[in-house]
Amino acid sequence: MKIKVCIVFMLGLIVAGTLCGCGTSGNGMESSYEALDVDYTTNDDGTYTCNDNIYKYKIEVSGMEGESQVTFIVLTNDTETDFDDVAYSLKKAELSTGIPEFVILGWY
Prior knowledge:
- Helices cover about 25% and strands about 30% of the residues.
- The protein starts with a helix and ends with a strand.
- The chain has helices spanning about 1-20, 85-90, and strands at about 35, 40, 50, 55, 55-65, 70-75, 100-105.
- It is extended.
- It has a four-stranded antiparallel beta sheet with strand order 1-7-6-5, covered by helices on one side. Strands 2-3-4 form a three-stranded antiparallel beta sheet, with no helix packed on it.
- The model is unreliable at about 20-30 (pLDDT under 50).
């Protein structure tokens, strides 16, 4: 009888551990969201306004930056905007006077 109770108890612990996800992240580090100081508003029609420019989409694009996985949150009118576009825009030192193709809100 004691063996059956012990087995049931151990199975309960295994199931609880599995359901609670008591593991660590893959790299052992917590990812934290870094928000940039960007003022934007969400419009009634579901679009976004930033610096008097209207953007249709708020998307996340992910990729590798060095050895780390990075995800950018951006406002854009082009659903084809990808990680390389955003990462390249951060690296180039070019001033533009036109409407930005996208606006980076933050990353994690």
